[in-house]
Amino acid sequence: MSEGNGQAKNGGGLHWVGTRSIRPDGVDKVTGRANFGADFFMPGMLTGRVLRSPHPHARIRSIDASKALALPGVKAVVTCDDMPDIPAEEAFVGEGPMNFRDLSRNCLARGKALYDGHAVAAVAATTAAIAEQALGLIEVDYEVLPHVIDVEAAMRPDAPVLHDDVFTQGVDPAPTRPSNVAKRVQTGHGDLDAGFAAADVVVERHFTTKPVHQGYIEPHACVASVSEDGQTTIWGSSQGHFMIRAYVAKLLAMDISEIRVIPAEIGGGFGGKTLVYLEPVAVLLSRKSGRPVKMVMSREEVFRATGPTSGTAIRVKIGAKKDGTITAAEAECKYQAGGFPGSQVHAAAMTGFACYSLANVRIIGWDVCVNRPRCAAYRAPGAPMAAFAIESTVDEVAEKIGIDPIDLRLKNAAKSNSQSSYGPQFREIGYIETLKAAKEHPHYKAPLGPNQGRGIASGFWFNIGGESSAAINVNEDGTAVVATGSPDIGGSRASMALMAAEVLGIDQARIRPIVADTASIGYTFLTGGSRVTFATGMAVVESAKQVVQQLRERAAKIWDIDVDAVEWKDGEARPAGSNAGRFEPLSLKDLAAMAGKTGGPIIGRSALNAQGAGPGFGTHICDVEIDRETGKVTIVRYTAVQDVGKAIHPSYVEGQIQGGVAQGIGWALNEEYIYGDDGRLQNPGFLDYRMPVASDLPMIDAVMVEVPNPAHPYGARGVGEVPIVPPMAAVANAIYRAGGVRMPDLPMSPPRLLAALDGD
Amino acid sequence: MTGLEYQAPASVDDAVGLLARFQGDARVLAGGTDLLVQLRSGRLKPGLVVDVKHIPEMREIKDAGDHFWVGGAVSCAELGEHEVIGAAWPGVVEASELIGSTQIQGRATPTGNLCNASPAADSVPAMIAAGARCVIAGPDGRRELPVEQVQKGPGKNALAKGELVVGFKIPKPAAHSGDAYLRLIPRTEMDIAVVGVGVALTVDAGGTVTAARVALGAVAPTALLVGDAAKAIIGSKLDDAALEKLDAAARAACKPIDDKRGTVAYRTKIAGVLARRAAKIAYDRARGR
Fold first, then answer.
1. Using a CB-CB distance cutoff of 8 angstroms, which residues of chain A are in contact with residue B194?
2. Which one-letter DSSP state was computed for residue B57?
3. A chain contacts of residue B189, beta-carbon cutoff 8 Å
4. Residue A585 belongs to what domain range?
5. B→A interface, C-beta within 8 Å
6. Same structural domain for residues A758 and A619?
7. A508 shares its domain with A629
8. Are the C-beta atoms of residues A473 and A645 closer than 8 Å to each other?
């Protein structure tokens, strides 16, 4: 519902921030006019297709593309031989670790195929049918190798080893033999033994979770066009067109100045579009063929070769006193990285116990290669699995002590200025506020029906800031364009317009927010880490302040008074102080019309590295009803309470919360990758990879608690990731209350729950 | 998909002629909700597609005296909107309206659902329970088969080259009859049955079941008509003992496989549960409740 079109409806001295304007990208999206990654066409464009390994683990002895190249209509074939063999280079980008050599080899396999679906070669042809036919003519000589899919199996000494140059980092002494265990990480402090010795109750449990896909509706897609002089343009959807530019430059050893990336609308990313898969390959094909090349993945390719997030095996042990004080907490998290090192287990180690203020705490994490697609970030990457295990255990501790699960959390909650479980001291945080709001919510006291149960769980995510650029161009008629470098995956353009309107004092409908390409705006880090409204929002506010400053200067010039004697209020310059009332106010529209005579166009620009992203906490209440004869779970009611700092656009904050919960419920109940004994993925489609459909979910009640983040001009915190952290444990804890069985393994699908209920 | 020929004949005879004369693989297109997916995925590469939606006889739903006629190109949504069929065979209609989404049901047909020969086809157990028969046209004229004899295994049906299903003859239900179809899917819609059960039964004035048909889907290579399950409830007032026998008979008939959609143990157990639940619904309907 829109309340904010033209009329301010917000209190607290704010006029636009906090209103529910219609999103500027909305009409084109609902009418189908919006251009997504697959919608771009160029004359002479070729279709690119990828040949993928049918084997989970195989040495590539040779690739013979001669028959494919001989097929009329085939214009180019590329393999890893067309890509520079770049050295290992580790970086922490986006929301996880990245090794550019691995990324290169993920785009086109070199030496070995490491999972079913691993790209081995690609072809560009005049039609899709010819390209498909050509794939069948490429002869790859594979030596099939033993494979390993399960994380714990991959850690065994006798497991097939994916990489002979991976030696476990973070262990002392350093291993002399390569293994699948890429890294050991550890966080925590205090004395665990003493903490457990002081406990009245100790609960230790083992959990497993399955890899799940981000499930964005839009498959990966791009068009690349390389000119004769090497100038390269890429059109496509991603969470960061500057990321695409940087990664293509890195992987293809190009200068960044040679590459321009033009963003399309994005049909969902959830972290999964923070990598490149097709773009470097499309550039190679275009370069080789001399024609623009379009590549669009099928859904099957998306499932076999992109995402997912890690499957895990997690052990949790928590000790507490009878009064509810947690005396010690530890966890060991084994995370699947996929075919290359780089799971988000470090985030798991940092976030797992972050809701709690603990004297004695430790999390050990293991990053483990398996013959599955390389993991990608997925909404609060790494955190939800650890939270499932830990919040399930916390629930059991509360039950054993006989204390309300919210009270147990209140007793141990992280608070402002307390030391976090992973080290740093928290600043202003609102976890306790979410617990209190949950406890006071009518949902928490509502009666339950037969076979129903209620579960509670909390969650944490850091949120990040980072580099953002923005520009505001005041148009001749007093309207304005707000340009940023942040792809809009969650309604951020609407928020940018609101924040600019607030500073400028004009109707948000007079502001056109756009996502500018890599040649038209300064560097902007990708859309991830729930950073855009916070960090890019700060750049927009700063740009708007510059515009206001210039407007005051123009008015001062016109009135021939000192600029300090001009104030900007309600969208107009007014003479202030001793000059008050001496001149008629000049509106932004007036000043824009006179800009040519007063110094030229009025433009505000800002580029910054935003610091102080406020961490986010959420507490969820879930009611389920179980069918004791079939094991089927129905989510009856769901309330998600979250500290959002300040909701710039409440509707899209609620949307983020609801979306995260929906994905979490899918993760909890039915989503899983099913591999056969042959190491091939058996459910690469939405029919058998069961994300929730609309009718599976109740209306999710999003309750926003606002504990402002002092680092942001309006108090915003990132909101997009926290809501996927609590749902799995909230559902599991609700199932326990309804059916009396603890469900330590995800997904809690009907066959699994029925087996548990029947004691099979 | 190179060299695909498309024909849209106006009569059954023309359709049969096209199918019979074509050298190579020819496929009938009714709604196309299975066929087009199979074409696009490359699983099927037919040379000829015969669209039957322009054949008037195959587009009709009508009262044919002793039975209802449902043409082979009638969509699930059209069946769902037909008040007479809906009153006579609510289970058949409900099963047809579980297939895919609302949009899919606008094109998908029960006939296609049957001929595609998926063991999990939702409309098939309901049609079997209702005692429906197929009219099949071919180069040698027309023949009839009970629905339970059309599926021969996953993806295989009893049609010979040149044959197509013209439509269903669904009997008019006896007085005090009711039917129901239930399926288990992990979600609430847009899914494929892990188990499906259709039950049709007739009761006498005292509430005793005098006739029954029970059919199971997704628990064997084809949908099954389970005589023992019907026997378990005939003569009963559907008391707990009869339901228990029905449950056991349904489970005993199962010959499922373990696959990504369900295990042998789970499917077997659920077949019994759904048989009981479907029977209760059918019973209440037969009793006018």
1. 750
2. G
3. 693, 695
4. 465-610
5. 1-2, 42, 184, 186-192, 194, 260-263, 265-266, 269-270, 273
6. yes
7. no
8. no
